[in-house]
Every structure is written in structure tokens, then in C-alpha cells.
Records
---
Amino acid sequence: MRRQPLRAAGAGVVTGGARSPEATLRPGEGAAESSAGPSLEALEQEVRALREALEQEHSEIQRMESGLAELHMRNACEEYLHRLERRIQVLENKEVDTVQWRIENIEEVRRNYSKGQFLASPEFSAGGLDGFSFHLYPRGDDFAEEGYCSLYFHVPRDTRISRTLFLGRTRHGPAEADSLKNCGISEMCVLSNEIDKATGSIVIGVEGLQILSSPNIAETRTKLTLDPPRPAPSVG
């Protein structure tokens, strides 16, 4: 009886002296294939996706930078236009020497203010100079007696003026003033005595305003010198 020879695990089958086509694995070869990383094609796809994302991010940054530049330019233009408008107002108001500010419903306004609190007017220009404003203390400043209101006229820095302040029928002036001296009256008047009973309003203001000195006063021109003509372009 012939005995079938036993093959070792993984050994090839020998038939007629030739080795069978079955592969013989060396130790560790199967594990190496199973633990291999992603393929080259997958890596290239991932790189392309990252490049596209980077390009989109770069485009978004450029769009934001363009928007910021446009916003900055718009703000700069608005600021320039505002300064230009103020400059035009200064020139238009160069001959103005009387300014009035009407305050409606003054009794209600007075109820909403405490002693030492003031109501400020918009800034305005007059006499060729910008930066004037009124401050009204409906219940008086810290130094006024009870029942009195206080009125201050704020003058631009380094400016000296002559003015008469008024509130209703009460006048103070003419007097010279600057940003520190005679800038207001602590006890201007008893406010209730100056209210227009028909409208419930008061009118405060300045009259006879003259600019005595200021480094910022707008000057108007009476003579204009034009630039010489440019040289004619050469021919040939």
C-alpha cells in the first residue's frame, strides 16, 4: 500500500517534478499588503481637493479685502464731503452776526433736567468761523440760585469775540469773550419769566457777534492769480 506523503502547510504541490502554480508566501508578506496606506490616486484626489479649497479661501480673502478697501474709500469720501459742507456753511455764514435757537415745550424739558445738567445746541458757524454752540442749563448750573437758568456760549479755541447773549427779553452784553472769559452767565434769568405763553417755547441766541481775533477765520479772496500756461508739446 502506497503512502501519500504529507505536505507542510503552505508548501507547493509537486507533480511530475514541477512546482504547482500556487504561490508560497514568505513570513510577513500578507500582513504588509493588508496594512498598506491609500493608493496614489486617492492621495492625488485629496491634494486636488485641498488646492481647490485653498483657491476658494484665497478668492474669499480677496473679496473681503476689496470690500474693506471700498468701505474705507466710502468713509473717506463721506468725511471729505462733510468737511466740504461745513466749509461751505462757514463761507455762506461769514456775514452772520445773529443766531437764534428756539426750544419748544421748555417746561417739559425743564422737568427732565436736574440742576447742573445742560442742553447743547448743534454746532454752527458765524462771522467766518466754525465751532460755536450754546449750552442751556434749564435749572441752572452748580452756582445758580434756585429758579434761575444758566446760559453759556462756547467759542472756538484761541478766538476772541464781542457778543450780546439773549434769552427771551433778557440781554447780557455787549461784552468781549473768549473760550475761557465771559463764556456764559450763571444766573441769566428766571426761566419761567421768559417763556412765550402762546407757544410754550423760549428763544435764546447771540447778536452783534464780531470776531476780534482768530487763527481759523475764513478769509474771502478779492484777487486771484492764475498759473502760467503750460509749455506747448513738442512736435516731431
---
Amino acid sequence: MYTALSISYGDMGTDIAVGVQLLNSAHPMQGIVTFGILVFALVMQALAAFFFGQGPAAAVAGLFGGKPLYDTYHSIAETPMRQGQTTDHDTILVMTHSLEVSLESVPLGLYTAVLVVQASAEERSAVQMLSVLASVLAIAYVTASGARDHDFIKNFRRGHPQLFGWFPSEPWPQTVTFVSLNLFIGGVFTAKMTSLAVLFTASATVGTAWLVSEWLGVLAPPLGAD
């Protein structure tokens, strides 16, 4: 839990550093886009706080980047659920990290990777590279943690043994599996991000069309089933 919190704020910190650096560069619009993506992610976290019935304090924390810390505290302290809160603290914490990954880590990781590919050797900075790596780490860790936690839900293991129960229960095998899963997810995302960055650099239109086609490919089976 503390590891996920540290990774979340490390990722956010590098994104802010990249945004500030770009605002002071020859391409300030890139910094505006970076902060725009970040602010959108924070606003969505604030809206999620209202959706889950967490109240104004959680929403304000979301707007200022404090939602992961807020939710982690309530999860660890096992504080009573607020009146009107729709679900427990642990579930909300998982959703907060999921929003961070999907609305901040993924888009900013890809956008920063595109900027790195497009930039000349003199324009590339260590902060940008660190931001890309932080995004990969956040995506890998949060996704692997979610997969592990879901796999240990007893109802899932009993009801769907063909899908759940593959994570070892013994400490050492579990650690090896978790680390391997992080490396796999991080490697896949890095390869995908790098290829898309090169594609967007060659043609923004083709890159966008490729992304849309992939999303349609993901959504097509569920829509077809309906």
C-alpha cells in the first residue's frame, strides 16, 4: 500500500517537473498540454469522490493531488464509512489508483515519450526520461497489484477457478510471480509506448487512427456480445 502511494507521487512529481521545464522552454504549449492532462486527471478524481459519497474533503483532496494519500489513510486506519458512502475504503483506494493510471500515467507517459522521440539530442532532458520511466513503473505496479488482489478474492476463486487461483499463496513464489508480472506489464507497455511515439512522430493522423482502431478492437467483443 505504501509502495503504491510512493510510486503514485513519484510519477506525479516527475510529471509536474516536466511540465514546468516545458513551460520554460521554447515550446511552452507542450507544458500547457502536460498540465492539462494532469489537471483533467485530478478533476476526475474529485468527481469520483462525489460519486462514491466521500464528501467535500475528499473532493478537495482530489483537486490538489491528495486523493491517494487521503484514501490510503482511511484504508489503513479502517475509519468508519461516511454516511452516504457507497463502498468501502479499500475499493475506493483501488479505483483511485486505477484513475491515476488510466488518466495520468498512460496519457502522460505516451505524450512525454512522443516529445522525447521528436526532440533533438540537445532538447531531451533527464527529467523527461525519468517521467517516462515513472509512468511505466506506476502502470506496471498498480496493474500487477490489482491482478494479485483480485486473484486472492475467495469468491472469485470458488466461482471461476479457470480464471482465478493462479497466484501462489507461499511468500517466495508469490514474490517471484509478482515481480515477473511487473516486468512483463512494464515491458509490454514500454514497447507499445515506444512504437506509438515513433508512429505519432511520423504522422499524428496515422497514430491517432491506429489508437482508435485498437480501442475499437478491444470494445468490439463486449459490444457484439450485447
---
Amino acid sequence: KEEEPRRVAKKEEKEEQKKEEPRRVAKEEERKASPEGSSSSNPTGCTRLFVGNLPWSVDAAGVDEALGCAATHVKYITDKDTKMFYGSAFVEVGDPEKAAQAVERSGVDVGGRPITIKICPPRPGDLWPPPRQEVKARTPRPESGTTRLFVGNVAYEASEDDFLKQVSDLLKKDDAVRDVRWLTDRDSGDFKGSGFLDLYAVEDADTLYRTLNGATLKGRKLRIDYVAS
């Protein structure tokens, strides 16, 4: 009986260590990554990047926008058990010059957060690039539900009316949306291709999470994710 509290404490300590592991890995990789951002800082021609401080709702299109070029592979750093994304990723861009140019964009605003971009050569023994592009797991439904959704990978030529019509068609009603807030560049005001949708009913958010994700709008497949209230 006296040993029971110790066993419980050790178990809880192990659980905390497991939760901290992705953060530890991300910090360690960021420390190893080159802090320089010019093409002269990439003499080995490395094409692999570390990208940190990403918003949890970011998608592949958001990563490309942040880098200023298309990534060929994205490996999101997640918890081994829960698959929860911790805001960091390893990215392959396939070209040394593109990698150097991407590093110069470190600090750019993505979803209201200044991201970190650094040259990050693979460690010895790492399989890089990975066999296929990895897709970040979608956010699990909040326990009590939510009326807010993240909307990503929206075509730049799509209008708000185009999007709302698609929502209305899926829900079969016109009065489900409380508000839509699109994300724009702080300096230029240009549309970033993503935003937030606020609905009146949790049930409607659940329906759109299932049916709107992957739906095509103006040639691009939408990414829909939950946002905790």
C-alpha cells in the first residue's frame, strides 16, 4: 500500500514526459538548425527546413504560403500516441536556392503567429525525404462541441458568396452562419486563403466538419478543422 502513491507518481511522470517529447524534439531540431537566412548560409545545398511556431490549424497550402514556394514533403511533429500537432514541421523544398529564400521569410505572419524557418540537414540515418507527403491529423472534436471551424486552402478567386452558397447547400438552410472572418496579410491586405467560420449550432459545425472538408471550391479542396471555443 505504501508503494502505491510512488507507482502512481512515476506513472504520471512518464505520461508528462511523453507529452513533452514532441516539444523537446522540436526545440532540439531548432537549436541544431542553421540560424542564418541568406544563400551564403546554405553552402552544402541543403533542401530540408525546420519550420516552427506554426498555428495548429495550418494545412499544406498554409505551409507553402509561409515558405513562398511549394514544399514536396511535409513531416509534422506530433505526439506519438495522441497524434496531436505541436506547431513544428520538417519540410523538403527540393531546391537549395528555394530553401535559402524561404529562410529569409522567417518571421512572416501565419495565422497571427511569427513563424521560424531554418536550414535543417537530416540527421545521419534519417530517411529523408519520407516515402510520401505526410498529412497532419485533423483536430479532434472538442468534448463539449464547438460552433467555430477553421477553413483553409480557399482559392484566392473564390468570393465569400461562393463559399456561403456551398455552406447553405450542404446544410440545406440559409441562416446557419453567424460570422465569417477571413485572414489577410497585415501589410498588404491580401487574402491568405483561409479564415474562420462561426455557426449558430454545434450540430451544423459537426456536419460541415464531415461534409465540407475536401469539397472543391473554385478548383481547390477545402480543409475544415475544429477550433476550440
